[in-house]
Structure of DUF6503 family protein:
Amino acid sequence: MKYLLSIILSVFLLNCKNVKQDVSEEKQTAQSIIDSSITISGGDKFDTSTIEFDFRDKHYLAYRNKETFNLERRYEDASAQYFDTISNIKDVVNNKGFQRFVNDFPMAVPDSMAVKYSASVNSVHYFSVLPYGLNDNAVIKTLLEDVSVKNKKYYTIKVTFNQDGGGEDFEDVFIYWINQKTNKVDYLAYSYNEIDGKGIRFREAYNERYVEGIRFVDYNNYKPKDASISLTDLPQLFENGKLNLLSKIELENIAVKLN
């Protein structure tokens, strides 16, 4: 009888374990994975923060207070024709739209150029705080097959955008590879439309650091030889050394103030 009870108990516990595993696997969706990645990268701190950094020859500032945001890019332009002296340019994207200031004076900008300037400002701020921003209303997330990169397992999340609210580049496609142990974005890739065809980039995160609880990384920026390949093939090409290193995306002098 004791032997029989032990068998029954063992089978019961094994079934309970399997049920827990099945429930856990069922809960792993693109949304839950992104939520976990945002949490480990700073979570709610992004929503009420002021973040400043330098990228190449420009200074960037992002003020966020829940639904209110103000994204800035500041730099000097000796070739600007607004004044005879060196011009201090400040481009601002906020809830009201885009505005350019030259030496602190607001300047009129044609709509076509305002769209381009706004997209350029948004792009740098977008990459600086990933994966924050992937829960915006215009984002469509799809969970693809898991992959292994350098002997580590990754979730694969495909991101596309609704045309309504997706900005000028709503047709761009992104893929994020999120480490299954750390829940952090280690790699990403994206395709975008160029005048002469499609462009593809693959980025490898490095130099991770936390400032006031918010995660920042730099990237090695790669390009494949063939722009017609699928984004999902890039991790294998990366491992095989088949991608060309174009540049490094490095954020300097990062400062964070929690509002």
About this structure: Confidence is low (pLDDT under 50) at residues 19-25. The CA atoms of residues 7 and 228 lie 57 Å apart. The first strand starts at residue 48 and ends at 55. The first helix runs from residue 2 to 27.
